[in-house]
Amino acid sequence: MRGGKDVVVLDRRAEPGGRIRTERRDGFLVEHGPNSMISPAPGAEHLVAALGLAAERIEKGEDVRHRYLVRGGRAHALPLDPLGFFSSSFFSLGGRLRLLGEAFIRRGPADESVAAFVRRRFGRELLDYVFDPLVGGIYAGNPEQLSITALLPRLKQLEMRYGSVVRGVAAKAVAGMDPRFDPRRRKLCSFREGMASLPLRLAQALGSRIRSGVRVEGIVPRAGGGFGLTLRDGEDAARLRVAGVVVALPAYAAGRVLAPLAADVGTALGAIEHPPLAVVALGYRRAQVSHALDGLGVLTPTVERRGVLGLIFSSTLFVHRAPDGHVLLTAYVGGARQPELALLPREELLALVRAEAEDLLGCRGQPAFDSVRYWRQGLPQPDLAHARRIAALRQAEAEFPGLAITGNYVAGVSTSACIDEAIAAAGRVMRQPMQESALAERRAEASSILRSA
Ligand SMILES: Cc1cc2nc3c(=O)[nH]c(=O)nc-3n(C[C@H](O)[C@H](O)[C@H](O)COP(=O)(O)OP(=O)(O)OC[C@H]3O[C@@H](n4cnc5c(N)ncnc54)[C@H](O)[C@@H]3O)c2cc1C
Do the Cβ atoms of 409 and 19 come closer than 8 Å? Predict the structure, then answer.
């Protein structure tokens, strides 16, 4: 019972957590999905505290001193703080002056691709060596195809409000920035036993209210209010009547499930691309690696034509990720940039990543450990049609009281954003007064239980 309402969680997988998957093997701890969360984020903080996980929460390791970017075939160390980063000699003098000139660039259209926005405001060099690897690292995406309003809404808002991102950032710094958006206060965190601690603890708290291995196939409205859910539990089909429903599925699954309710939403969500992505973890003895690994990891711009989107220095990022005397690296391959590479057979994929790790980080010889995960449908790619899709989804919510739609395609892929959105979606359903017919049904159910007791 939550807020006076019975809650049931239906998940098609046996294990809770969706994209969050932690593997503990041979002393290594591998994250096949998110390796960290961004804090402070109100929903995530609240959830961690409510689940009693605060003591298990860990922050990035003390050896994380740089972020690395590849240029000219080499990994360059850049400072973590934005000022040091952008003033670094990694960028040409022309590129740095172009950044300052941003204050004088006129406002652009309401939406455009990330690439068009960045080229227009900051110039080609920042697109190639900052935004492209960033979009590759977070979305495994191509900035030429993705919408600036969907991916980096705060940058677009600064342009619209202050006429310039640089002027907007300066004005906010003077006024005192909202800590959630202040890059100096943002931290990466995880848990001692990995990201899966969060869904596992949540599932424990939900107890029998979570029904694993149950696939929702469709949702239809019921006359008089509420919804009918078509379910598949193994070979068995079933129906479930509910007063309200939060659809928190990947876009392609939500599209299928919502199609009987709102065909246009089904089509719109089904059209969001999810290029394949492969995650390859390699463990080495420390002596096999010449690089200091003193950072978050290394990102590769498209113009550098590498075989990986980036490599996270997992055992530097968080403690307890590799046995003593060993290090762990996690590579991301494919995405919108090179989807074909994410489908390579396992041995070819491992060979590709080993070659990249050797070239960029000086990893020599056979790794002591490896692990591969294929995501056939990786991360959603919000393109220029995205705002229209979200509008269709909100329209469906307005049309069907008690329906809320959330997921990583709504307000950003980060785990923290997903938690915030999911809490907001649950709130919309909880606040929805229960339809009279559903209440009558409940009363009838309750009295029949009382009679049989
Ligand atoms: C390789 C990788 C690395 C990432 N790295 C980071 C990172 O470092 N930091 C970060 O913040 N984020 C990261 N992300 C993004 C983040 O993990 C996801 O965006 C987020 O976890 C998505 O959460 P979600 O609940 O929206 O969807 P999901 O986690 O996909 O959950 C959807 C759930 O729906 C269930 N489901 C699907 N269909 C049905 C159905 N028909 N009926 C019932 N249940 C169904 C699934 O079983 C699943 O449990 C990464 C993602 C990937 C893939």
Answer: no
Distance 442 CA to ligand 1 centre (A): 33
Calculate how far, in angstroms, residue 438's C-alpha sits from the geometric centre of ligand 1: 32
pLDDT tens digit sequence for 367-391: 999 999 999 999 999 999 999 999 9
How much is the pTM?
0.93
Q: State the fold for domain 82-183.
A: protoporphyrinogen ix oxidase, domain 3 (1.10.3110)
Nearest ligand 1 atom to the CA of 312 is: 8
Rounded Cα distance between 366 and 349, Å, is 14
Dihedrals phi, psi of 345, to nearest 5 degrees: -60, 155
The rounded Å distance from CA 9 to ligand 1 centre is 15
- Cβ of 19 below 6 Å from ligand 1: yes
Residue 77 backbone phi and psi in degrees, to 5: -85, 130
Tell me which architecture the domain covering 9-60+190-273+382-439 has in CATH. Answer: 3-Layer(bba) Sandwich (3.50)
Q: Is the minimum distance from the CB of 257 to ligand 1 under 6 angstroms?
A: yes
Q: Please give the CATH architecture assigned to the domain spanning 277-375.
A: Alpha-Beta Complex (3.90)
State pLDDT tens for residues 1-17: 566 678 999 999 999 99
pLDDT single digits (tens) 391-429: 999 999 999 999 999 999 998 999 999 999 999 999 999
Decide if 367 contacts 282 (C-beta within 8 A).
yes
Burial tier of 235 (Cβ tally within 10 Å: 0-12, 13-18, 19+): exposed
